[in-house]
Design goal:
The structure holds two protein chains of two kinds. Chain A is α+β, with helices and mostly antiparallel strands. Chain A is 29% helix and 12% strand. Chain A has a five-stranded mixed sheet with strand order 2-1-5-3-4, sandwiched between helices. The longest helix of chain B has 20 residues, at 508-527. By secondary structure, chain B is an alpha+beta fold. In chain B, 28% of the residues lie in helices and 25% in strands. In chain B, helix 4 (198-209) crosses helix 5 (234-248) and helix 8 runs parallel beside helix 17. Classes of the chains: A alpha+beta, B alpha+beta. Chains A and B meet through helix 3, helix 4, helix 5 and helix 6 of A and helix 1, helix 2, helix 6 and helix 16 of B.
């Protein structure tokens, strides 16, 4: 039990785009011949790729993650995404697994100040970074102004995309405290709300942005 | 927006959503958020052919199969997914009738191991030719409604117009995929799930295992959207989880991933409508001949009811001196189609509205003027023979939307083919179940007073984002004359709440809400001035229950398909304004203007949200959401290539409510959830047609389709 693993449907090549990404990680690992990738990981610093075949790690490895200002020691399989580490290992279930492709934004978290889809980040790559999840926004019972505005303007219906949308809003307002409607649309276009509450979300953001100005 | 009745404390007020705080903090618990130590992870092994027979199943090497729980067809007490017709097996019985049909269930404590093992199961088939389109397959259900002398009416028409319209399928893409956790506690099964209709699941599990209703406990967890996709389909997921839990003796998690969910789950029925309209030269409708066909997929599921709603809405909001409406659903080898917001009405109304616009064009009339001549009014007869007993107020709604949108000036200034256009559609939507459906359901709700002075609302009607919890608390608090804080929505577990019918058909607020209102009124009388706490202390308990009662005078005959199809209708006038990119042909729906009559607004903000969301889904269906079937399965079964509206694509929505309250709905409320799905698509295609000077008769109208 560690990871949502590979695609439900089996691609013809045997290696899906998703499996490939999970296999190779995001830039921190070397890429051997595609045929060798099957959920195993080759760590570049440990084993430079050689024609004779890379060293393959299996099982779990210890990692350290800093989330919402707290350090966590945990063990994960190298292929574990940050999202799965959050949900399955740390019981931080506010970030949601939806598309598993970095398309819908439901798993959005802020990592070193940048909005990322945590389904597309390997947990091992998130080490040494400051990660903020939806659980880290409120302090005690005091909601973040964005959370309060989402409630006030009914900027949510089923709520499954909401944590991601709030994180995306947080990220937007940090870099652009007074966004125009168009800038809001662009900034949130990676966060899909099937209930279609966008208008209410824009109203909520305007409230927070206006409040910040005043 | 209409001001709320000043005598009401809560009804008509935009009270904040009940569950908002949990949802914005990430604390709301959805089924996949529940920790289940010791549980098995499950996966469904599915067919890779659309039609054929299973020849052989091989469990490959390298997998410790003895650690797995494997369920096959022999493990199922009664291999039927109980719904309308007992034709769908829980697991394939040897004959494969569609792609992605479940064949085996496997489970293991290690999730990764389950995925690896799934790849090592090799199934071989004797492949047979599949039927993958409407037409050649068997007719599953057929309806025919005839009113007046249709042939004579066509003979006396000055102009007879004929056209065929098509609508594509649509995937719900509820953001939370399907999922269940099942655990047997002795001879009792407990199921936690993401679902709309808890009692559907109870019935399906009870029938499959041959057990008593009290042995099945279904608990609805916070549900991340449904849109009809979690009406009947969760039955299958629940049964699979329950079977694995039974065989393994352990709790089982069966949570779909997105790709599997999109490939195997039900979707909107694709449709073909042949429409023939007779009209006088001065623009008076004389006759309608409507042949409505839908692809049902491999099993019946809810297709007869979807077909029925499509047929019953085909006449639209117009007066037809004579009408013949025929509906047929066809069995194919596609994965079964099922409930989706609108439930057949968006399909038939698309054709009706496109045809009305085309006939106006043919007559050289403004489509608004043409509609005005033919709108239904109080006392008019609909194709089922139903006589409208309230004035729909369509003229005023049309006037208003025309004024709001600047219809006349825009039509004059935007030349045909200029890349900009406006389009109109006016529609109706029946509240609640079709015909005798509400009577058959016998929905029940209860209110229970507690020793702490609070009142619990006990219903099986689910919160799926639309606001059930909030509006029911408003309705109950209003009728009880209690502060809303004293009224709570009881968590839905079937051992504790009565069956208030399924959460579908735009019936929750209006029909079930009415039962909540009556139960609250009865409790208010029972209290007779005492507080809830006092009453409970003195009498031990406080409980009122109500059951659905048909409105007086409402008659429906299932055999002849005549009578009052619905107790009440909601109405909506839509104007779409679009721009089509001259180079890429990408249609951008800029604004949807709408006037909406859903009766009394219980909660204006929530009602607005329903309309906004429905409009966005309808615009997606009309312009970008294309279910591409390849060899009988959705080829684009990911959110990367099935394109639903984002914050950039969703149109601006200018909305005005113009309520005509229904005396038999909760405080006058009528249905809201589905109607916004009906009108935008034909309004958008009319606007695109105007913008590029072309007739659009099929959706989705993607750039590729528009260029070709």
């Amino acid at each position: 039990m560690s990871d949502s693993s590979d695609d439900g449907a089996r691609p013809k090549s045997g290696v899906s785009r998703r499996g490939f990404l999970k296999g190779v990680g995001l830039g921190s690992v070397a890429i051997p011949a595609a045929g060798l990738l099957g959920g195993s990981v080759v760590l570049a610093e440990e084993a430079p790729p050689k024609p004779s075949g890379p060293k393959v790690f299996t099982g779990e490895i210890p990692i350290k993650l800093r989330i919402n200002g707290k350090d966590h020691d945990l063990k994960v399989e190298p292929r574990t995404t940050l999202l799965n580490a959050l949900r399955d290992r740390l019981d931080l279930t506010g970030s949601k697994l939806v598309c598993d492709r970095g398309t819908c934004g439901a798993c959005s978290v802020i990592m070193d100040g940048l909005l990322v889809t945590s389904c597309m980040v390997l947990a091992i790559d998130a080490q040494g970074k400051e990660i903020t999840t939806i659980e880290g926004l409120a302090s005690g019972d005091k909601l973040d102004p964005i959370q309060a505005a989402f409630i006030e303007f009914d900027a949510l219906q089923c709520g499954f995309c909401t944590p991601g949308l709030i994180m995306a809003t947080k990220s937007l307002l940090k870099t652009n405290p007074h966004p125009t409607r168009e800038e809001m649309q662009d900034a949130l276009s990676g966060n899909i709300c099937r209930c279609g509450t966008y208008d209410h979300i824009f109203a909520a953001i305007e409230k927070v942005a206006g409040g910040a100005r005043g | 927006m209409t001001p709320s009745n000043p005598t009401y404390q809560y009804v008509g007020k935009s009270v904040l959503r009940n569950e908002g705080r949990n949802k914005v903090t990430g604390r709301a618990v959805y089924v996949d958020d529940i920790a289940t130590p010791g549980a098995l992870y499950a996966k469904t092994i599915r067919s890779t052919v659309a039609c054929g027979r299973i020849k052989d199943i091989q469990f490959g090497p390298g997998i410790p199969w003895d650690e797995f729980t494997v369920v096959d067809v022999r493990d199922i007490p009664h291999n039927v997914v109980e719904l309308i017709k007992a034709d769908q097996p829980v697991l394939c019985d040897g004959v494969v009738r569609h792609r992605e049909e479940p064949i085996l269930l496997i489970a293991h404590p290690d999730k990764g191991m389950v995925e690896n093992a799934a790849r090592e199961i090799k199934i071989t088939y004797e492949v047979e030719p599949a039927i993958l389109e409407i037409g050649p397959g068997a007719v599953q259900t057929e309806y025919l409604i005839v009113e007046g002398d249709v042939d004579a009416a066509f003979a006396s028409s000055d102009i007879v117009f004929e056209e065929t319209y098509q609508t594509g399928s649509q995937e719900h893409v509820y953001i939370e995929p399907n999922g269940f956790i099942a655990e047997w506690q002795g001879d009792r099964i407990v199921l936690h799930g993401s679902l709309q209709c808890p009692y559907y699941v109870v019935k399906a599990v009870k029938m499959c295992f041959g057990i008593e209703e009290k042995q099945v406990e279904v608990i609805q967890e916070t549900t991340g959207g449904g849109f009809g996709g979690k009406e009947e389909f969760p039955n299958v997921v629940a049964l699979h989880a329950a079977l694995l839990a039974k065989k393994s003796g352990k709790p089982v998690r069966l949570i779909y991933d997105r790709q599997e969910d999109m490939a195997c789950s039900t979707k909107r029925h694709p449709s073909v409508s042949r429409v023939k309209i007779g009209v006088s030269r001065d623009g008076v409708l004389k006759a309608l001949d409507f042949d409505f066909q839908i692809d049902a997929g491999a099993y019946v599921t809810l297709s007869p009811v979807v077909l029925s709603r499509g047929v019953l809405h085909a006449g639209g909001c117009y007066r037809w001196p004579a009408a013949r409406i025929r509906g047929r659903s066809f069995t194919t080898n596609s994965p079964p189609y099922g409930a989706f917001r609108g439930f057949g009405a968006p399909q038939s109304l698309f054709a009706t509205e496109c045809a009305i616009n085309a006939v106006a064009d043919r007559l050289g009339m403004d489509p608004a003027e043409f509609r005005r001549k033919n709108f239904l009014h109080k006392g008019d007869k609909m194709p089922t023979g139903q006589v409208l007993d309230v004035e729909p107020n369509l003229d005023a709604m049309l006037d208003r939307v025309i004024a709001m949108s600047g219809w006349a000036e825009k039509r004059a200034s935007m030349k045909k083919g200029s890349g900009r256009g406006v389009g109109l559609a006016t529609i109706l939507h029946g509240t609640g179940f079709t015909g005798s459906g509400e009577v058959y359901l016998q929905s029940r709700v209860a209110l229970a007073g507690r020793a702490d002075g609070k009142v619990d609302i006990l219903v099986g009607s689910t919160e799926i984002g639309q606001g059930t919890e909030t509006i029911f608390r408003q309705i109950a608090a209003e009728a009880l004359r209690l502060p809303m804080e004293q009224v709570e929505f009881h968590k839905i577990r079937t051992s504790a709440v009565p069956n208030s019918g399924p959460t579908v058909a735009s019936r929750t607020c209006s029909v079930v809400g009415r039962l909540v209102q009556r139960a609250a009124e009865q409790m208010f009388e029972k209290l007779d001035g005492k507080s809830v706490a006092e009453y409970v202390k003195a009498n031990g308990s406080l409980r009122t229950e109500t059951q659905f009662e048909p409105r007086p005078g409402l008659k429906w005959d299932d055999a002849t398909y005549k009578g009052s199809a619905y107790g009440a209708y909601s109405w909506m006038c839509n104007v779409a304004e679009v721009q089509v990119d001259p180079v890429t042909a990408t249609p951008k729906v800029e604004t949807i203007f709408a006037t909406v009559d859903i009766g009394t607004l219980i909660n204006p903000t929530l009602a607005y949200g329903q309309v906004e969301g429905g409009v966005a889904q309808a615009v997606g269906w009309a312009t970008s959401e294309k279910v591409t079937l390849r060899d009988g399965v959705m080829a684009n079964c990911q959110m990367t290539n099935y394109i639903i509206p984002t914050s950039v694509d969703a149109p601006d929505i200018q909305l005005e409510f113009m309520p005509t309250p229904d005396p038999f709905g909760a405080f006058g409320a009528k249905g809201v959830g589905e109607m916004p799905m009906d009108g935008p698509a034909p309004a958008v295609t009319a606007a695109i047609g105007h913008a590029i000077n072309k007739t659009i008769s099929a959706i989705p109208a993607t750039p590729e389709d528009l260029i070709s």
